[in-house]
Structures are given as C-alpha cells and as structure tokens.
C-alpha cells in the first residue's frame, strides 16, 4: 500500500514542481470534464491554452487580464507572507475604481493628459482607505481580518451600485446603470496601436521588481516576513506587529486600488456594475500558485489570464457556461493544495502487516 512519510525538512524540489504537477493534473481533469460535457477535449484545450497566444492581438488581450491579477497578487503576497489574511482585495479593487472614476468624471474636455496621474493616485488612496478599515478593526478590536475584509467586498459592491444607479448615472445613457464614458485625456495610455494593452503592464512589472527588492533586500521586508513566520521571534527582535499589520494591508489595498483605477480608466472606460470581475479572488490563487514570489506570480498571473480568456471563448465557441472559468480556477487551487502535500511528505510503498506475518 502507499503511505505518506514525513520528510526531515520540506522539499525544495517539490516547492517548485508542485505547481507544475498541479497544472498537469488540472489539464487532465479538464479533458475528463470536456468529455463528460460531450465536447471535443482537444478543441477545449486549444481554446484555453492556444487561442489566447495565437496572435499579437490575442497576446495583448492576455496582458490586459494579466495586469490587474498580477498587481493584486503582488499586494496579497505581502499580506500572506506577513501572516495577514486579506481576502477582500476585490472590495479594495472596486473602491479604487470608484475613486479613480470620480476623478475621471470630474475632468473636462480641455483636461491635459496629466490627469492620469491623479486618477491612479485616487485609485491607490481608495484601496488603501478600504483596507485600513480591516486593519483598524483587527488592530483595535482584534477582529478576524478574513471575515472583515470579505464582508467589506459586498459593501464595496453596494457602494458602486448606488453610485452607478444614482449620482454617477449618465443622464444621456438611456437609463442604463453606468456613468458616462470618460474623456479621452483620462484614458490610460496604450502601449500599442490596435491593442487595449496599457502602461499598466509596465507598472505591474515595475511592481514585481519593487516587491523583490522589498522582500529580499530590505530590513523592512525581512521584518514583515519574520513577523509572519515566527511572531515570537519578531517580538524578541523588536519588530512591531502593529506596523507589520498596517504595512501589509495598506500595501495590499493600494495595489488592488491601483489595479481598479487602471481597469476603469483603461479597458472599461467608465463605471458600470460589472467592474467587479473576480480579480481580487482569482489573485489569491495567483499568489499561491506563484509561491508568493514576485517572479513566480508573473507566470501564474499569465496562466490565470488564460483561464479567463479561455472561459469566455469556451462560452461563445463551444457553448459552455461562463462558470467554466471558475471551475478551472478551482481545480487548479485544489490540485495545488493536494500536490503541496509532497513538500512535507514523501510517498512510500509499504506492505500490509497481516501479509508480512502470513509470509
């Protein structure tokens, strides 16, 4: 029989190989799923893994999805490495989009392109302000940050709904719940003509480099990680747990708010009830598949973007429900959790005790 044997120390090999194995198992389960639904599995895999990269335009759309996922995941990595469980990045994303949209709506037709900077700063401020509610309740009343941050997601969505159905509603929009389209000067500059890819991608890649320096080359980043791995050792070393809490949540909220600003002032171009796209929740998977490492999260963000685009294409071309995206995301997460067992345990073949005695 097969048995799990505890390793003397966690396996470095499986810490890197586990996400690859999880992806392979997810693909196999995807084939089974397509067969069960009566669809051609080869065509299904092609839609998910080939169509998003088959042309320059498709690559641009892939980067459009990758940008918010990567930005939010970078912020969440700071939280998770600090043992602060921010599950409400979706709400911080929404509030960042709302404040950025408010600045964009206030701009006139003669506004210069410099208005983009206040829009992005408003998004960062919105995300940080929303995350600070969780930090305050955890710091002051020891409230559980998982529940608080998660419940604030629904509050943020209600705030967005109130605004697009009320004060921000476009008077000339035929009663649709949406703001007017933002002025051209407020649009995030695009990297290429004929593509929706914006400078947000460059900002996200700069965030990758900044997070790597912060985590692995600064005393503050070291303090954040020690506080998450060994709180008692952090207190003994004089590191402030309160500072670590506030830093983690403010950085995470700011990154999510920036992603929201880039989204509404970029590909969307207005405020609508459909701003919440699930990026804040999907970024949790991105962070853990990427092993909370800045470089690893680049690859996992691209993979998760493939699932988003593949789900949209599967809906239009294969007649599958839009929920297929969430199915693939969930499969990847659960297979990763299962494969992570190999980091702490090795699989051994053992004999039944009864059979040994009989022999």
Largest sheet: 2 strands, antiparallel
> Which term fits the overall shape?
globular
> Which strand-content bin applies to the residues?
under 5%
Order of adjacent strands in the largest pleated sheet: 1-2
Alpha plus pi helix count: 15
Helix content: 55-70%
Q: Can you tell me the residue ranges where pLDDT is under 50 for at least 5 consecutive residues?
A: none
Give the end-to-end Cα distance, rounded to a whole number of Å. Answer: 16 Å
Mean pLDDT: 92
Radius of gyration: 22 Å
Question: Total number of β-strand segments?
Answer: 2
List the secondary-structure elements in sequence, H or E: EHHHHHHHHHHHHHHEH
Notes on the structure:
There is one protein chain. Helix 11 (279-289) runs parallel beside helix 13 (324-339) and helix 12 runs antiparallel to helix 13 (324-339). A two-stranded antiparallel sheet has the order 1-2. The protein is mostly helical and 359 residues long. The model has no long low-confidence stretch (mean pLDDT 92). It is built from 15 helices and 2 strands.
């Amino acid at each position: 029989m097969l048995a799990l044997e505890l390793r003397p120390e966690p396996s470095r090999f499986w810490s890197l190989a586990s996400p690859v194995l999880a992806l392979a198992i997810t693909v196999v389960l995807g084939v089974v799923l397509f067969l069960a639904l009566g669809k051609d599995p080869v065509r299904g895999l092609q839609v998910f893994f080939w169509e998003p990269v088959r042309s320059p335009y498709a690559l641009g759309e892939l980067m459009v999805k990758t940008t918010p996922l990567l930005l939010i995941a970078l912020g969440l990595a700071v939280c998770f490495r600090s043992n602060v469980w921010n599950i409400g990045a979706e709400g911080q994303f929404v509030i960042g989009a709302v404040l950025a949209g408010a600045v964009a709506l206030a701009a006139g037709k003669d506004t210069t392109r410099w208005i983009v900077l206040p829009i992005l700063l408003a998004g960062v401020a919105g995300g940080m302000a929303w995350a600070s509610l969780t930090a305050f309740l955890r710091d002051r009343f020891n409230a559980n940050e998982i529940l608080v941050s998660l419940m604030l997601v629904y509050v943020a969505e209600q705030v967005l709904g109130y605004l697009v159905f009320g004060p921000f509603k476009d008077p000339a929009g035929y009663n649709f719940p949406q703001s007017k389209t933002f002025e051209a000067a407020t649009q995030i500059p695009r990297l290429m003509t004929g593509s929706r890819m914006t400078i947000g991608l460059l900002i996200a890649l700069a965030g990758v480099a900044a997070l790597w320096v912060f985590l692995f080359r600064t005393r503050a980043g070291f303090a954040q990680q020690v506080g998450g791995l060994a709180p008692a050792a952090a207190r003994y070393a004089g590191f402030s747990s309160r500072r670590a809490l506030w830093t983690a949540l403010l950085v995470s909220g700011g990154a999510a708010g920036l992603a929201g600003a880039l989204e509404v002032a970029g590909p969307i171009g207005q405020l609508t009830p459909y701003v919440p796209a699930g990026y804040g929740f999907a970024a949790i998977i991105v962070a853990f598949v990427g092993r909370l490492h800045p470089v690893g999260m680049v690859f996992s963000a691209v993979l998760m973007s493939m699932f988003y685009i593949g789900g949209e294409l599967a809906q239009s071309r294969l007649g599958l429900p839009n929920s297929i995206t969430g199915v693939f995301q969930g499969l990847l997460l659960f297979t990763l959790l299962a494969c992570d067992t190999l980091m702490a345990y090795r699989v051994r073949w053992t004999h039944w005790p009864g059979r040994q005695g009989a022999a």
